[in-house]
Amino acid sequence: MSFRPPKYPYERLDPLREKAASLEGGGVDLSVGNPCDPPSPAVLEVLGSADEGGATRGYPTSRGSLTARRAVAEWFGRRLDVEVAPEQVALCIGTKELVAGLPAWLHLRDPSRDTVLFPELAYPTYEMGALLAGLRAVPVPMGEGWHLRLDAIEEADAERALLLWVNSPGNPAGQVEDLGAAAAWGRERGVLVASDECYVEQTWQGRPSTILHHGTGGVLAVHSLSKRSNLAGMRFGWYTGDPEVVEFVREVRQHAGFMVPGAVQRAGAAALGDQAHADAQRERYRERLAFLRDVLARAGVGAPMPEGGIYLWAPAPGGDAWALAERLAAEAGLVVSPGEFYGRAGAGHVRVAAVAPMARLELVATRLAS
Ligand SMILES: Cc1ncc(COP(=O)(O)O)c(C=O)c1O
After folding, report:
1. pLDDT-based confidence at residue 52 (cuts at 50, 70, 90)
2. Residue 122, CB half-sphere, CA atoms under 13 Å: how many?
3. Are strands 337-338 and 349-353 parallel, antiparallel or unpaired?
4. Ligand 1 centroid vs 197 CA: distance in angstroms?
5. 369 alpha carbon to ligand 1 midpoint, in Å?
6. Is 358 found in the same domain as 327?
7. Which atom of ligand 1 is nearest to the CA of 232?
8. Does the CB atom of residue 94 touch ligand 1 within 6 A?
9. Does the C-beta of 232 come closer than 6 Å to ligand 1?
10. Segment 259-291, tens digit of pLDDT
11. 72: how many CB neighbours lie within 10 A of its CB?
């Protein structure tokens, strides 16, 4: 049977967007985690002189420039207190393409395994990557607080697994995972553990953590500037970890032409060097999450503050997420995502992304109050 892509989930919200937009003052779309705040001035300055050093002329490598990889390594040291050699870092064009492509490349490396394990409630691209590679996509059950239940993975699936995805802090539920336990689980079974850490700067509970705190063997840490630095439109991500896996993936990607444009590499290095900007952004998210939580609570929707990330994960009254999404769009012009977008387990929840300025959130609050 040929592969038919499902309808892209967020397109299913267009009728709700129309309804929200029809309110006076317009809609407030918090369905997609789309950053709305300005990037670092250092980034804009670099983009203004994009060709410096011939950055727009020659072909970049898939690995990325030494400047960009040094900036990544310095950031790891500064923010996560972990030593990473620039030689062990490689770039990706934002992380979505890496997440979507990794299963196929790992299957080339080990055709004897055919399974991708991923959290049952998660960013949908983990599953899509398996499907695009024609592999088995097996969801891993989650327990209390939406934490991954490694003990619930069938050994038969583990034996067939090419990789296990973990996401900490998690999208959409914001859980901070025990990455040491994940790394140990993978090492015991010879399964690569790929840790998507793109929300690490937005860690609200405890210190920001990376799977690299538990060594590099058998793991891959995956990162992005999209949320840290409001650069989703620039497409700059990176991966590092097990030296052999990094080198294999990098080589395949070099052959296939997955290269971050030279000017973007320069701008990405500038963004990584500007911690003050990322800190200010984190505070914006924290303020908005707390505000939205109170607004929703007054409307009868009790969402806890997440352990990390930029989303509220709210149980829908009566368990009907679409009904809640309809109500919020009609009454408050607020567009949220029904939880089923992130897996069947999320069907009774909605996800609210803290991605609009406070003035827009105040408009939502006023509408709900009346
Ligand atoms: C968990 C997770 N991983 C990866 C991504 C992709 O980010 P990007 O491709 O912009 O780096 C997202 C985007 O929302 C995400 O939520």
Report:
1. confident
2. 28
3. antiparallel
4. 9
5. 33
6. yes
7. 10
8. yes
9. yes
10. 999 999 999 999 999 999 999 999 999 999 999
11. 27
